[in-house]
Design goal:
The chain is α/β, with parallel strands linked by helices. It contains 13 helices and ten strands.
Length: about 350
């Protein structure tokens, strides 16, 4: 009898342990309750206390950032070969236009206020028609406050401004040096075309067609000693974005990378010296590696958010498959750093007081 009672008691304990394990595994998979294993004899937390202590933490953990400003790299193809490029031409894929529009509409519904089209080189696709149609859709149909493009400028023609300029708030042209030999050394060269001369032509077209003009420069070993004060002040962009050369595993460094950017890298101290030398340029907007890495929402050609937290680009699932809220949780986006670096500014040309 004693053995029989002991056996029944052991069986009951075993069943309790199995039941507890089921609950624990369920919690592990779905995150519905805290991870705990209440074995027989352990003190349980009452349900009201459990809800009170867990709810605030759950709300913070599950909260998705708002995609206020999104950088959509819809193509990886480019006609330049910049040695430090950290979004290289690994595929030639470009979403069909209507699919891209569908994803942009989803982003607008999720809270997007600014879209920036980038690449690769955005004007390669259909000679600029593809990005033009996206720009028009975002401004005319989605009524976004800000629509911008980052380009190397080599393929932009005046007809594009005549057709699509009214829908574009900001055109950012990448220019790392005002010395053409340095541009060629970096990889911003295309035959006999002069990158700096083309920059000035684009600046004039932006004035003519009421598009805010911006310059992006990557500070690296080949231009860190250059004095750009005079040239930047003469061009008078609304913003001069100055980036520190950044290494991304699998893109511009590592065995599976298409670029070897190590020779372009500068120290934090050198970057600060460059900034100090140009501190009197009122439109200067500096971005160190620390500010850049997690403060951008980057959408790739498949409309996947790219998480750069671990030093490489790790993609989420496509927003077209799982929705914006589910995909953005894996973006690694630091909303506080985005605001701290000045990511939100007067970005609609309707609100800018500019002398076109």
């Amino acid at each position: 009898m004693q053995l029989d009672a002991l056996w029944h008691r052991s069986l009951a304990v075993a069943r309790a342990v199995v039941a507890a394990l089921k609950v624990w595994l369920h919690a592990l998979c779905w995150g519905l309750i805290p991870l705990s294993l209440p074995l027989p004899g352990w003190r349980r937390v009452s349900a009201p206390s459990l809800a009170t202590s867990a709810s605030p933490r759950r709300e913070r953990d599950d909260a998705s950032p708002t995609p206020t400003s999104v950088n959509y790299h819809f193509t990886r193809q480019c006609n330049y070969k910049c040695g430090f490029c950290f979004h290289t031409a690994k595929t030639s894929f470009v979403l069909p236009l209507e699919e891209a529009k569908k994803g942009l509409a989803m982003l607008k519904e999720a809270g997007m206020e600014k879209i920036n089209f980038s690449g690769g080189e955005p004007f390669l696709q259909d000679r600029g028609e593809f990005v033009g149609k996206l720009v028009q859709f975002c401004k005319q149909e989605l009524k976004l406050p800000s629509v911008s493009i980052v380009s190397n400028g080599s393929l932009i023609r005046e007809w594009w401004f005549k057709k699509y300029g009214e829908y574009l708030d900001i055109l950012a042209i990448s220019c790392d040096s005002f010395n053409e030999d340095v541009n060629i050394l970096i990889g911003r060269g295309q035959g006999k075309k002069n990158h700096v001369e083309n920059l000035h032509k684009l600046r004039q077209w932006c004035r003519d067609y009421a598009v805010a003009f911006k310059i992006n420069s990557v500070i690296n070993r080949f231009n860190v000693e250059e004095d750009m004060n005079e040239q930047i002040k003469a061009l008078n962009p609304v913003r001069w974005k100055v980036f520190q050369c950044l290494l991304i595993e699998g893109e511009n460094t590592g065995e599976d990378a298409l670029r070897e950017a190590e020779k372009f890298v500068i120290s934090d101290e050198d970057f600060e010296k460059f900034l100090d030398h140009h501190k009197d340029v009122s439109c200067l907007v500096p971005e160190s590696n620390q500010k850049m890495r997690d403060s951008y929402l980057i959408l790739d050609e498949y409309m996947r958010f790219l998480n750069c937290t671990n030093g490489r680009k790790e993609p989420s699932k496509s927003i077209l498959d799982v929705g914006v809220e589910a995909a953005i949780k894996f973006s690694g986006f630091d909303e506080k750093m985005f605001l701290k670096r000045g990511g939100k500014y007067v970005w609609s040309k309707a609100d800018m007081k500019l002398d076109w």
